[in-house]
Design goal:
heterodimer; A: 85 residues; alpha+beta; Alpha-Beta Plaits; two-stranded antiparallel ribbon; two-stranded antiparallel sheet; elongated; B: 298 residues; alpha/beta; Rossmann fold; eight-stranded mixed beta sheet; 8 strands; globular; binds thiamine diphosphate; binds iron/sulfur cluster; binds magnesium ion
């Protein structure tokens, strides 16, 4: 008798899907005027901005380059640059 | 600490297939991060489910189940009853999620049952104002005059002919203890409302405005900006209602005209080309004014 196949994925296993390849622009964190407001970490749809103490950066394996972090940074300390592969 | 591993604290992992700039998946991450790890989550069919569970992978780092489009709240009801029977209901909270279509259309019966039976569940409606996962068909939470694939604008139509269904009022008619609206534009407010809701026993309803760059037609970078404009124009009032009484509302420091919100989106661009369109804009402005009056936003 055939056993039932499981229909589940391991928790968080989507990390094997490197969505960074979607990007046409990448965020660059300038580390100049940051006021530690933490907004960039909160507003990233993919949850891939990390850091603390005015030093934040992005996990480019997954960042899709949407530009929300740069758009929302109140002191323009993040800029979008054209992706070069 | 300056370490990529920090992102592992997110209950929704990266690598999901939501569109670049998706407001829905952003909202879900904020909700679940606020809820903590001692939760069981059910999710209706829709973008949130499809993009996060590309078999054999899953983006969920908390116990999560999908069954059907219509029954997220019924599955959650069963889970909550089982937790009660096992004496675990105080430790493990149940969150039921669905899109606007899942919530206000097809899942309405199950949701009403969940409210009426008094299950201790937080229901979250991710309101991107149409059936996005199947190609932008209108739902009963699609706003007036939005152009969708089933309500296209044209010679004889300005888009969706109906007003947004008043879901919070329908939830309120079930006399549930907590109802709130929120928006991805205000992440800290989402966190506060989710934490508060989970402290309250009984059914809770949270409706979250979650812009969809693809379905609404705007630049991926503008998801937060657009969400903020919806609030600032009075078109998406943010409030909390506890035991039938409005206990908080987001006051607007400066009320913007509805055009400020509408003109940014392709789904409303037909309102800006003709004289008749101006009349439609007046009607939408009147709706915003009504919200501002009703909730005391100004
Ligand atoms: C019973 C049933 N009818 C139709 C569908 C097809 N379907 C899948 S997702 C979806 C739309 C979901 O819309 P919504 O709930 O607003 O979620 P969104 O994708 O917009 O986040 C539809 C119609 C289905 N899966 N099951
Ligand atoms: S560009 Fe978008 S996906 Fe990339 S880090 Fe910024 S907010 Fe996140
Ligand atoms: S269609 Fe809209 S809601 Fe669906 S994943 Fe894309 S941006 Fe998100
Ligand atoms: Mg929807």
């Amino acid at each position: 008798m055939q056993t039932t196949k499981t229909l589940y994925g391991e928790p968080g296993s989507s990390v094997q899907n490197k969505t960074g390849s979607w990007r046409t622009e990448r965020p660059v964190f300038l580390h100049k005027t940051c006021t530690d407001c933490f907004l960039c970490v909160l507003v990233c749809p993919d949850g891939v901005v990390f850091g603390s103490n005015k030093i934040y950066d992005v996990d480019l394996d997954y960042c899709k380059g949407c530009g929300i972090c740069a758009e929302e940074c109140p002191v323009k300390d993040i800029v979008m640059e054209r992706e070069v592969k | 600490m300056f370490d990529k591993e920090m992102t592992e604290k997110n209950s929704v992992a990266p690598g999901h297939n939501a569109c670049s700039g998706c407001g829905l998946v952003l909202a879900a991450r904020l909700v679940l991060n606020a809820a903590g790890k001692d939760i069981i989550v059910t999710t209706a069919t829709g973008c949130l489910e499809v993009t996060t569970t590309n078999y054999p992978h899953s983006a969920w780092r908390v116990p999560w189940i999908h069954s059907l489009f219509e029954n997220s709240s019924a599955v959650a009801s069963g889970i909550e009853a089982a937790l009660k029977a096992q004496g675990k209901a105080d430790k493990i909270k149940v969150i039921s999620q669905g899109g606007d279509g899942a919530t206000a259309d097809i899942g309405m019966m199950c949701l009403s049952g969940m409210f009426e039976r008094g299950h201790d569940i937080l229901y979250v409606c991710y309101d991107n104002e149409a059936y996005m996962n199947t190609g932008i068909q209108r739902s009963s939470l699609t706003p007036f005059d939005a152009s969708t694939s089933t309500t296209p604008f044209g010679k004889y139509s300005f888009g969706n002919p109906t007003n947004k269904k008043d879901m919070p009022a329908i939830a309120a008619a079930h006399h549930i203890p907590y109802i709130a609206t929120a928006s991805v534009a205000y992440p800290q407010d989402i966190e506060k409302k989710v934490k508060k809701a989970l402290q309250i026993k009984g059914p809770k309803y949270l409706q979250l405005h979650a812009p969809c760059p693809l379905g609404w037609g705007f630049k991926t970078a503008y998801s937060i900006k657009i969400a903020k404009l919806a609030v600032q124009t009075g078109l998406y009032p943010l409030f909390e209602m506890e035991n039938g009484v409005i206990t908080s509302r987001k006051k607007l420091a400066r009320v913007l005209p509805v055009e400020a919100y509408l003109k940014e989106q392709t789904r409303f661009k037909h309102l800006f080309v003709s004289e008749d369109g101006k009349k439609e804009l007046e009607r939408i402005q009147a709706m915003a004014n009504e919200n501002i009056k009703k909730f005391g936003l100004a």
